[in-house]
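The aim of this short unit is practical: by the end, you should be able to scan a pair of folded records and say something sensible about each. We start with the first protein, listed as its amino acid sequence and then its structure tokens.
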Amino acid sequence: MKKTIVWVCSFAILAGTGIVNAETAAPQKAPQDFAAKKANILQRMDDREQKMAQRHKEARACVQAAQNDADLKDCHDKIRAEHKAKRDKFREMRDQRRQQQPQ
């Protein structure tokens, strides 16, 4: 009988503190309203599309200006170098995020 009372009291105390903690927890950041979120996403997509179009124009101009195979190879190497620089940048950012995360 005593064990049952102890268990019930313990459970009541633990449940009560959980409810209090849930009520006193810091409020979460208010969600962005849908229209603003949608506009933000569309703006980022437009920016990305413009950057990609600019890179495509530069690569196309390089290929059009090529006079021989060596020039074409130079264009290809230039494009690959740009992609590698971008890839390395993102890898570095990923590694920094991983170092900051608690484990």
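Turning to the second protein, read its sequence before its tokens, just as you did above.
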Amino acid sequence: MTMRIWNKVLSIELIIGMVISIGVGIIVENIPQLYWSRVCWITLAVLAIIFALQIWGKNNHTVKHVSQWLSNLTLILIFNFLIYTAVSTINLTNKSLVLVSSIVGLLLFLVVDIPVVVVNFPVVKNWFMRLFMVFLLYVNDIYNVNRFLGTTNEVKLILHSGVVDAIACFILTFFIARAWNFRFSWNLKLIKTKYFQLWLLC
């Protein structure tokens, strides 16, 4: 995919994010269990600013630079938060969609941050800031935002196992390596040993 396509995908994500922020912000006002309304409106404001800067930045390098940095510092946290809030809201308001919404949420966790990395991470040149960006990804993982409310026990088990986080991190690592011009190899070699063969038999 070309950078132009990645930019369009990111723009679509921003628009969807704004729609979800408005929808969840309105719905959760009437659900005592949920307390995300104010956060959703703040999220909407940030997404709207980034979207406006993204459009303005097409003809202005400085504005584009600001847009990329603001995106790097906020979008990964925001997108994961919106998946969590949207799925949890659906689960608590429509029990018949619990399994479907939870599975869709799990799949979105794996791919939602890729456009952010591809479009905006190349602007991070300094080693310290690269380290800081990795730290933000780490904070996003340990914050445990991806624990859907009202979901099935099977989905809870998958989420608590850390499998989704591990796969998402592996995928993002590939795209981060490309964005920062690092070498990344997919070939994982398994060495056959006596203990490995015993483990397979078990």
